[in-house]
Fold this sequence. Notes:
By secondary structure, the protein is of the alpha+beta class.
Amino acid sequence: MGFELTSPTAIIAIAAAAVALVALAxxxxxxxxxxxxxxxxxxxxxEAGEQDLVAHAGRIGRDFEALQTWAEEVLGRVDARVSETxxxxxxxxxxxSLIRYDAYGEMSGRQSSSVALxxxxxxxxxxxxxxxxDQARVYxxxxxxxxxxxxxxxxxxxxxxxxxxxPPS
Length: 169
C-alpha cells in the first residue's frame, strides 16, 4: 500500500505537521519574550526576585536617598575645591607684555626690555633690563591697580598699557 498525498490520512498528517511547526514557532517566540520579561523583572526586583514590591520599592528609595546624599557631599567638596582654585588663581599672572627698545639710542638692536607681569587686580611688577655696551642694569618696580609709587619710564608705562590692553590669560 502506497502513501498518497490526496488521501485523508495524508492531508491530516500534513495539517498536523503544519500545526506542529506553527506551535514550535509560537513556543520559540514566547520563550524569547519570557526571557526579556525575566530580564526586566530582575532589573526591577533584583536578583532575589523579591515578592514584596513595597519592600523592594522602599529599598530602592533608600538606595536613591543614599546616592543623593553622596552626590551632594561630592558636589560640596568639588565646589570647595573650585572656590579655592579661583582664590589661588586671582593671584596668578593674568596680564603680561614685553616691550623691547634701544635705551641709549644706539644701533645696538633693541637689546633693552621691559616686562609687565600683572594679576587680575592689575597688580604685580614691571621688570626693566637696560643694556649698554659695558654695563647692564635691572630695575624692578611694584605695580598696584595699574600704577606705581615710583616713576615709570615711558617703556615701562607702555609695557603696563600693552599688558592691560590684552585679554587676561
